[in-house]
Amino acid sequence: MPSPISGFSKKNKAEKIDWLASQYLEQDPEAIAVLKNYWHQDETLQQLHDDFTENTLSNYFLPLGIAPNFLINQKLYALPMVTEESSVIAAASNAAKFWLNKGGFEASVISTVKNGQVHLNYFGKATEMTTFFNKIKPLLIESIADTQRNMKKRGGGLIDIELIDSITTLEGFYQLHCTFETGDAMGANFINTCLETFANTLEKEAAAHSLFIENDQYPEVVMSILSNYVPECTVRASVSCKVADLAQDDISGEEFATKFVRAIAIAKTEPRRAVTHNKGAMNGVDAVVVATGNDFRAVEAGVHAYAARNGKYTSLTDAKIEGDTFHFWIELPLAIGTVGGLTRLHPMVKVAFKILQKPNAKELMKIIAVSGLAQNFAAIRSLTTTGIQKGHMKMHLMNILNQLEATVKEKEQTVAHFTKHAVSHSAVVNFVNQLRN
Ligand code: MEV
Fold it and tell me: Rounded to two decimals, what is the model's pTM?
């Protein structure tokens, strides 16, 4: 049975692996070899990755693929996408190609305001808190003068601080609700530094405020942190074309568009479907967010909260037929950056930015929204026509073959066979067994 350890973080990498091997890996030489085989040969590069986080033992690979042919606001992009899911990049590429000769995608940033809060307790009268806040607001702003100097030079900085009285939802609960522009940075460190400075200033001023001294009752800071809910930092991407131009295989444009719009209507009304529907869009969003070194947990949390902003979880995308034209669009919040964090550190992220022709944060927001829209288009198109499994299993075929440890020859023969036959796990196993017999 494993025993607890103290000082694990102080051990070097080899010692950490030794400890892990003895406690959790039964000294399994294969498991240890896997950890070591994934080290990068270039020690400087490995050290860079080791330093991204703590207690690093090895690297965890995910594929980086490319979805070409994305025409966004009349500029042609190839999207770098990091995902482990088969058929996601193929679907994005298909959607990009589908819209390429129909005018491509349009995208625009709606707003870029980020926010954070200092959460406070105050159990005295609400008017006392308001009077105090109004008195100290200029001092709060003054207290971050140094912190925001550079950000201001880049056109960002604090927008405003408001006192929000939330005592009807939680006794004694107030917030300093602070809004910011952070330019090309995601801005998490900047915002959190500002918030903590506000918190310190507030506590210092409260200790000297005569009314609080008189009552011997002071506001108390509970915590200061940015919000990953960013409904004022949103982007819109859309496509449109003549309904007739949606005709494909044996389906008329009208039939396709009608069924497509109906599928969206279902996602708008039924949360169980909306979650899966949005998951499909997030396949596209996350893959570019990860490729560009952005915080996918922040994006995920913010997007799903936005999808539920009216009290019911609903679709991020919408579609309509207006006259003879089909319209399809997405609107979502995206707090991402093109400077700071991993963006200038991770060599693969730097290449991703180069592939994307060095976008600024607003351009990247548009690209990511388009990736989400394209992915959702591809999913709804499959679901309402052939069904998802046909394409998915075709792309999953290689995973099954790798599980079966198929040789190159076996792979070639199996892939050739399944161009004409439906892929299922058992069908592939049977076919490979036949080959081997
Ligand atoms: C699978 O990763 C994504 C889908 O389930 C999305 C959807 O159902 O719309 C295919």
Answer: 0.93
